[in-house]
Write a structure and sequence with these properties.
Blueprint: H1 2-52, H2 57-79, H3 84-105, H4 111-136
Helix pairs in contact: 1-2, 2-3, 3-4
């Protein structure tokens, strides 16, 4: 029966290796596609600003959204973790962009203005809560797909 156990272990090892290769390949392909789409969209937005001859605050905030999305892809690529703070920053910037666009087209304030400001405030409180929680209750060390600790510092050695 030892040969059966050995064969089973080899089969599991090969299946895990092939499965990890496929999953990581799809993961990297997806990250490159998303990163490329973000870069493409930001270049198109920038060229549109150049052809118009000016950039509004709305356009600049759109570029900040692209910048944050690109940073999220870069951090996820390096650490295999996606900090929720970046999603909150993107949401705050998107609501601010919408708020500025709404005010410039509808100068008369209404309840929508309060809703947008309240949403931005709640997202800012969420960032504060996430930052406090990560300071007070730090997560475990990040590991890569192979189980190795990433970003070792001298104190970890």
């Amino acid at each position: 029966m030892k040969w059966a156990r050995t064969s089973r272990d080899k089969m599991h090892h090969h299946a895990d290796t092939i499965g990890n290769l496929l999953v990581e390949g799809f993961h990297y392909l997806g990250l490159f596609i998303i990163g490329g789409m973000i870069a493409w969209a930001s270049v198109v937005a920038f060229l549109d600003m150049l052809t118009r001859g000016h950039a509004s605050v709305d356009d600049i905030l759109l570029l900040f959204i692209y910048l944050e999305l690109g940073a999220m892809v870069g951090i996820y690529f390096k650490t295999n973790h996606l900090p929720i703070r970046f999603l909150l920053y993107v949401a705050i910037t998107a609501l601010t962009r919408y708020l500025i666009g709404d005010i410039s087209h509808h100068p008369k304030p209404d309840a929508g203005l309060l809703y947008l400001c309240g949403g931005i405030f709640l997202l800012a409180l969420s960032v504060l809560a996430v930052r406090f929680a990560s300071y007070k209750y730090p997560s475990s060390k990040p590991i890569d797909a192979l189980g190795k600790v990433v970003n070792k510092t001298n104190s970890d050695l």
